[in-house]
Design brief:
The chain is α+β, with helices and mostly antiparallel strands. It is built from 11 helices and 22 strands. The protein folds into 2 domains: 3-281, Pnp Oxidase, Chain A (Roll), CATH 2.30.110; 285-404, UbiD C-terminal domain-like, CATH 3.40.1670.
């Protein structure tokens, strides 16, 4: 399934006037959230640019042929039942092969005036390890020369692959992918998870071998950058993150790009930082991970990483409470499953977790801080600007379910009218 196929099925707005990848495209996307745009004429680049592809749950649901309320279970099922993709000998992503690399031809966007420079934001990195197999993950990357990028690589699976490889690692960066592949790449279900197989369980997927290394990439990708993470480091940042605040400047790995392959008339995919698209892509794939963990200790009905919590730091978990301690068990399981969580609220099945007022009502009527709150001090998210330098943070779990030792009828909403 290709990005082009998806674009043919959703409402895409085309902008035919010339636009500048330096700040202008980002401004248009920022002023029009939840809309999908194709910019057909981009200054100093032969490529078109698409933005806003993953800006709503409805778009994700449509890409999977599902309803919005089926997304969590569809993603959970794909994680739990991965399947092997097919293989292609020839692929659209290799219609054109450029061995003379010039990253300047790509319409890489500059998003804010404080940015280090242009940034690839929708690039999915593909890597392989002899023990753990293929891994897909998102990492922002900024050109520092015609054939070099510096990438922010967090201390997660790809960094472990890099360490295991001795400090240098073949990679491919894929740009312009179907939402099902983007979803799979954003899932963090453990280092043994092959995200290609998760993607294939969401939607049938074909892979093709790269031209300059042994990696596999989606055959329908728009653009593929083949290269190697080197042992060199370069200053990276500042850049706005999912919280809407600027991430700090660090020394990060340098990537040498050895070959660019792409479709004819390729479309460059952008992802606006701190936008609904960024938050959904990063947060929504964590919801089934929390869902599965909570289901190990009690009956979980639904999970939401809230928009106000940057779709990363705050969660609401809905359970079908059977035992007095189910709420606390759910809190503990949620924090274990998503270690970046800062605040977690557990509610009963009669509470609409997508309605902040309903969640607040549950806290107001069913919660007592002296006995229904879990307070922790431990490692949190590097994205939380209020955390300590070593990422230590304070976490709060709120059990806003009906107390197990009380008359439940006292806590139910009155049937007015």
């Amino acid at each position: 399934m290709s990005l082009r196929k998806f674009l043919s099925e959703v409402g895409v707005e085309k902008i035919s006037k010339e636009v500048d990848p330096n700040l202008e495209i980002a401004r248009i996307l920022n002023e029009n959230p939840n809309r999908v745009f194709i910019f057909e004429k981009v200054r100093n680049s032969p490529y078109r640019v698409v933005g806003g592809v993953c800006s709503s749950r409805e778009n994700f649901a449509g890409s999977l042929g599902a309803r919005k309320d089926e997304l969590l279970r569809r993603i959970s099922d794909a994680i739990n039942s991965p399947s092997k993709p097919g293989m292609a000998e020839k692929a659209p992503c290799q219609d054109v092969v450029e061995k003379e690399v010039n990253l300047d031809t790509l319409p890489i966007l500059t998003h804010t005036e404080k940015d280090m420079g242009p940034y690839i934001t929708a690039g999915v990195f593909v890597a392989n390890d002899k023990k753990f197999g293929f891994n897909l993950s998102f990492h922002r990357a900024s050109p520092i020369s015609r054939n070099m990028l510096v990438a922010r690589i967090c201390d997660r699976d790809l960094m472990e692959y890099l360490k295991r490889a001795g400090g240098e690692l073949d990679i491919a960066i894929c740009i312009g992918l179907h939402p099902s592949v983007l979803l799979a790449a954003a899932i963090s279900a453990g280092i043994k998870t092959n995200e290609f197989e998760v993607a294939n369980s969401l939607n049938p997927l074909e892979l093709v071998k790269c031209r300059t290394n042994d990696l596999l990439v989606p055959a329908d990708a728009e653009i593929v950058l083949e290269g190697k993470i080197t042992g060199k480091r370069h200053t990276e940042g500042p850049f706005p993150d999912i919280t809407g605040t600027y991430d700090i400047v660090r020394e990060e790995p340098v990537i040498e790009i050895k070959c660019i392959t792409h479709r004819r008339d390729a479309i460059y995919q952008s992802l606006l930082p701190a936008s609904p698209e960024h938050k959904l892509l990063m947060g929504m794939p964590r919801e089934p991970v929390i869902f599965n963990a909570v289901n190990e200790v009690c009956k979980c009905e639904n999970v939401l990483l809230t928009h106000g919590g940057c779709s990363w730091l705050h969660a609401v978990v809905q359970i079908d409470k059977k035992n007095p301690d189910d709420g606390m068990k759910a809190i503990e399981a949620g924090f274990r499953a998503h270690k970046s969580l800062k605040h977690l609220i557990v509610v009963d099945s009669d509470i609409n977790i997508h309605d902040p007022e309903d969640v607040e009502w549950a806290i107001a009527t069913r919660f007592q801080a002296g006995k229904d709150m879990l307070f922790l001090r431990e490692t949190g998210s590097s994205l939380d600007p209020s955390a300590e330098e070593d990422r230590t943070t304070y976490k709060v779990g709120i059990d806003a379910t009906i107390p197990g030792d009380k008359d439940k009828d006292r806590f139910k909403k009155a049937g007015l009218g």
